[in-house]
C-alpha cells in the first residue's frame, strides 16, 4: 500500500514541476529571443516482484521448502530528470527600432556575446538593445554588447547602421563588427535568467548567419501547444491526487475500523 502512495506522490510532484515550467513559458511568450523549456520525465528503476510461499510434498513426513513465484515488475514512481531548452529559432518581427537587431541562422545556434560590469561573458538571442548614457550598445539589463574582438561597442546614438554581416557603420565610418558566437552543442549551455546563457569556456565565433537591423526574434513558445500541455499536466496531477486520497482513506479504515472491538 505504501509503495502505491509514494508512487502517486512522485507523480504529483513531477506534474507540479511541469506546470511551473509551462507557466514560465507562457509568461515569456512575448519576451524577445526566449527559448521555451521542455521537461524530460523519467521513471525510477522498476522493482521485480516475487511471491515467496511454502511448498509441501504430500508424503508421510511432509517435507517443506520455500518457493518463489515471479509476479512481474512494479514501477516505483516518476521524476523530472531535467529541463531542456528548445533552441529552435523564433519568428523574426520588424519593429522599426534602430537598436533592435536579430540573428537569422535557421538553427538557433548563434548568439550575441554580452558582458556585465564584472567582465563575465554571457550569450543571448535577445537583440532588443538600447544605448546607455556613455553611448555603449547594451541589453535592457545593462550587459554590454561585444564586438568580434571582445570589446564593448560604443555607437554614441541611434544613428548607426548594421549590415547583414554584422558590421556597424556610422556615416562613412566603420565602428565595429558584432561578436556572434556559435555553439556546436547548444544543450551544453546553462540557462540563466533574462534570456542569458552561460558556457563552459569561450564559444568560437560564428561563420554563417545574417543580421537584420530593426527586426527582433520573438519567443519560440507555441501558446496553443503550451495550453494543451498545461491541461494535460493538470489532469495527470488530479488523477494522482485522487489515487493518493484513496490510499489515505484505506489507511484510515485500517487504522480506525478494521479489528475494532464492539
Automatic annotation (TrEMBL):
Quick check: keyword GTP-binding in the entry?
Answer: no
Q: Name one Pfam family in it.
A: Flg_bb_rod
Query: Transmembrane helix: present as a keyword of the record?
Result: no
Q: Where in the cell is it found?
A: Bacterial flagellum basal body
Question: Which GO terms fall under biological process for this protein?
Answer: bacterial-type flagellum-dependent swarming motility
Q: Which PROSITE patterns match?
A: FLAGELLA_BB_ROD (PS00588)
Protein name as it appears in the record: Flagellar basal-body rod protein FlgF
Q: Which gene is annotated as encoding this protein in its UniProt record?
A: flgF
